[in-house]
Amino acid sequence: MVTTDRQSGNPYMSGKLLYCIDPLNERYLIAYDLQEIDSEEGAPKQYTYLTEVFDHRPSLHEVAEVIYRPYNDLCDDRVLRGFSYTTLEETPVTRHVWLDETNQRNFLGEFTFAKLFDGVNLPTIIKMGLSEDEAYYYQVSTLNQYKHFILSALGHIKQCLSECWTAKQAVDLTPYTLDSNGTEENEAVS
User: Fold this and answer.
1) pTM of the predicted protein model
2) In degrees rounded to 5, what are phi and psi of residue 127?
């Protein structure tokens, strides 16, 4: 597989976004992540898009993997950087929280430990902020404070995943189907 940089133009060929570009060497090109460019009224539609070249006829699974990659990347970024939390302090502080997989496991593990052992590990500190410049160290002293934080973080993750799944379900996969000659739809990508 070879990925290229974002291109512009109209990637459709006979209404398809997956087509054979070299039948002798079984090379296929897929155009995806189309974003329409504003153009003059009546002018043909133009897009920016990504392409990927396969050195074989891609399977349905490979096609779906490529098409959905931008959606998954956006979802991952929103989970990682998009969670904003307001503390339950006398003077509340709102900061983003870095939710990488390590922090997710650590937060949930520490909360579970606190819940199982009546908060013996409390107080604890949660570092908030996406950079050292905006760092804030939130002291969690009660199980209810930690529960509020965990439920907020899990709600954020659930919302990001739901939005991603909805966006992926709205993708029209028809232009990515081929027949045995590599030109017409006969199969569906799931």
Assistant:
1) 0.80
2) -80, 125
